[in-house]
């Protein structure tokens, strides 16, 4: 199974930039989307269905904001919307699909870039989500967690660690959360195959030269729990796919 995780920064905008044509190339069996910024009814889903995708959407109550979706060519055995954490669910941040004994979680982690209030919400969300995952793992040991984490974990994951040490997304508390998360028997699948630097999945749109010069952050991940480590086949980042300020990240895994 090939899984792609992709923050499209508005799926309608991405479609205008060739997103559907890209899907026609068959990039993955399962495509997990973050930041749809719309409802299912706002998109011509027949375009997806014509390509063989079943599609599941979980949108924010606020129009044009957040939202996640899963497009899959493999029929899932179960779909769950949200986590039961109301503040998170109101923002359409988590959707889950199950294939046999593997639970795939597609999550759009909050950003704290808009100010202290949202940064505090981000910390609370991270703590709540960690507790949720630990409880879920007891019932479903084989978990895949993909999405836009809005955290660059280590200095190798960001082009300018010194200049961004006080930037949301690279703050010590966020990075520490990520360290504890990975130390708790979660596997950063990309780093299993790619220990090298200068591999990023997001570039600021403020300056066009940023992406051209690869001054980015790696904030999009596909992580798995320990029981799935032996099933990993490959992982990568696809910077040449350009429908968004993010690019897709992928995982090949034996299910």
What's the topology here?
Elements: E1 2-7, H1 11-16, H2 19-24, E2 30-34, H3 46-49, E3 54-58, E4 68-72, E5 78-81, H4 86-90, E6 94-99, E7 102-108, H5 116-139, E8 143-148, H6 172-183, E9 186-188, H7 189-193, H8 209-212, E10 220-225, E11 232-237, E12 249-253
Parallel strand pairs: 1-2, 7-8
Antiparallel strand pairs: 1-12, 2-4, 3-4, 5-6, 6-7, 8-10, 9-10, 11-12
Helix pairs in contact: 5-6
Fraction of helical residues: 25-40%
Instruction: Quickly give the structural class.
Output: alpha+beta
**Main β-sheet description:** 6 strands, mixed
Written as H for each helix and E for each strand, in order along the chain, the element string is EHHEHEEEHEEHEHEHHEEE
SS strand fraction? 25-35%
Shape: globular
Which radius of gyration do the C-alpha atoms yield? 17 Å
Are there runs of 5+ residues with pLDDT below 50, and where? Answer: none
Q: Mean of residue pLDDT?
A: 97
The overall strand count is 12
What is the distance, rounded to the nearest whole angstrom, between the alpha carbons of the first and last residues?
Answer: 7 Å
Widest beta sheet: strand line-up: 3-4-2-1-12-11
Compute the number of helices. 8
């Amino acid at each position: 199974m090939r899984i792609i995780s992709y923050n499209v920064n508005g799926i309608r905008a991405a479609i205008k930039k060739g997103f559907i044509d890209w899907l026609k190339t068959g990039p993955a069996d399962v495509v997990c989307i973050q930041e749809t910024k719309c409802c299912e009814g706002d998109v011509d889903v027949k375009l997806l269905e014509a390509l063989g995708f079943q599609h599941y959407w979980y949108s924010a109550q606020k129009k044009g904001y957040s939202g996640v979706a899963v497009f899959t060519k493999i029929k899932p055995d179960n779909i769950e919307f949200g986590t039961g954490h109301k503040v998170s669910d109101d923002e359409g941040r988590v959707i889950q699909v199950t294939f046999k004994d593997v639970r795939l979680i597609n999550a759009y982690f909050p950003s704290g870039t808009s100010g202290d209030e949202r940064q505090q919400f981000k910390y609370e969300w991270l703590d709540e989500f960690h507790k949720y995952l630990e409880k879920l793992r007891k019932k479903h040991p084989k978990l895949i967690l993909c999405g836009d984490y809005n955290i660059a974990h280590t200095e190798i994951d960001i082009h300018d660690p010194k200049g961004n040490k006080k930037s949301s997304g690279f703050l010590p508390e966020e990075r520490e959360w990520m360290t504890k998360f990975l130390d708790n028997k979660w596997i950063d699948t990309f780093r299993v195959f790619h220990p090298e630097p200068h591999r990023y999945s997001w570039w600021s749109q403020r300056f066009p030269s940023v992406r051209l010069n690869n001054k980015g952050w790696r904030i999009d991940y596909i992580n798995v729990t320990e029981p799935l480590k032996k099933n990993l086949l490959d992982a990568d980042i696809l910077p040449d796919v350009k429908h968004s300020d993010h690019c897709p990240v992928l995982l090949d895994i034996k299910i």
